[in-house]
């Protein structure tokens, strides 16, 4: 029997995470949690079953929860909700697409999602509450701190370090060994 999981946030990123969850087959989505009643319509057929203020009550019924709000302009809501889930003792799993490759020599922490066709090589370490988006490439020994979004098709070459709360835009490419701290716009080349 699949474990039930609730998802916090019903926007576009939620749709992508639902698709990964369905493909992976470990969890069954019990429903969506939003900030306010009436804020969201069903997401891919999954109903709104509660609001943020009801998380304590929902913890009595559900063990697993996951933050499905994206990180483009700011990750403050993602970080706040992740902390709230941990305070309420939810189990926040790591979710990995079966269409991604994650080396057995890589380490991923709780609350991180690895989307379709991402490639995470040997020696990579990814912190908590991160998004490794579709087709991202993390080469050997990359270090990603907490609350980071590596966007679609970004390429981080060997030994790159990404500081907490950073955003790396779509199709960005880094030289090996660089430090990223903050916002990297789409299509950037970081030397």
Describe this structure in words.
The protein is of the alpha/beta class. The chain has two domains: 3-87, Rossmann fold, CATH 3.40.50; 95-190, Hexapeptide repeat proteins (UDP N-Acetylglucosamine Acyltransferase, domain 1), CATH 2.160.10. Helix content is 16%, strand content 29%. It has three helices and 21 strands. It has helices at residues 12-24, 55-59, 76-87; strands spanning 3-8, 27-34, 48-51, 64-67, 95-96, 101-102, 107-108, 113-114, 119-120, 125-126, 131-132, 137-138, 143-144, 149-150, 155-156, 161-162, 167-168, 173-174, 179-180, 183-184, 189-190. Strands 5-8-11-14-17-20 form a six-stranded parallel β-sheet, with helices on one face. Strand 1, helix 1 and strand 2 form a beta-alpha-beta unit. It is globular. The chain starts with a strand and ends with a strand. The mean pLDDT is 95.
Defining traits:
191 residues, Rossmann fold, 2 domains, 6-stranded parallel beta sheet, 5-stranded parallel beta sheet, globular
């Amino acid at each position: 029997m699949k474990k039930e999981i609730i998802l916090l946030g019903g926007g576009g990123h939620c749709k992508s995470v639902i698709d990964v969850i369905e493909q992976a087959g470990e969890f069954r989505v019990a429903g969506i949690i939003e900030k306010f009643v009436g804020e969201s319509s069903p997401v891919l057929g999954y109903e709104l079953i509660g609001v943020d203020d009801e998380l304590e009550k929902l913890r009595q019924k559900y063990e697993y929860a996951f933050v499905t709000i994206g990180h483009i302009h700011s990750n403050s809501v993602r970080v706040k909700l992740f902390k709230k889930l941990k305070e309420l003792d939810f189990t926040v799993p790591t979710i990995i697409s079966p269409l991604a490759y994650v080396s057995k020599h890589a380490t991923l922490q709780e609350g991180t999602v690895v989307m379709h066709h991402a490639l995470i090589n040997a020696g990579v370490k990814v912190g908590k509450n991160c998004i490794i988006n579709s087709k991202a490439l993390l080469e050997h020994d990359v270090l990603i701190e907490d609350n980071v979004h590596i966007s679609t098709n970004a390429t981080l070459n060997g030994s790159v370090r990404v500081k907490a709360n950073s955003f790396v835009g779509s199709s960005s490419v880094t030289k090996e060994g660089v430090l990223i701290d903050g916002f990297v716009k789409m299509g950037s080349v970081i030397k």
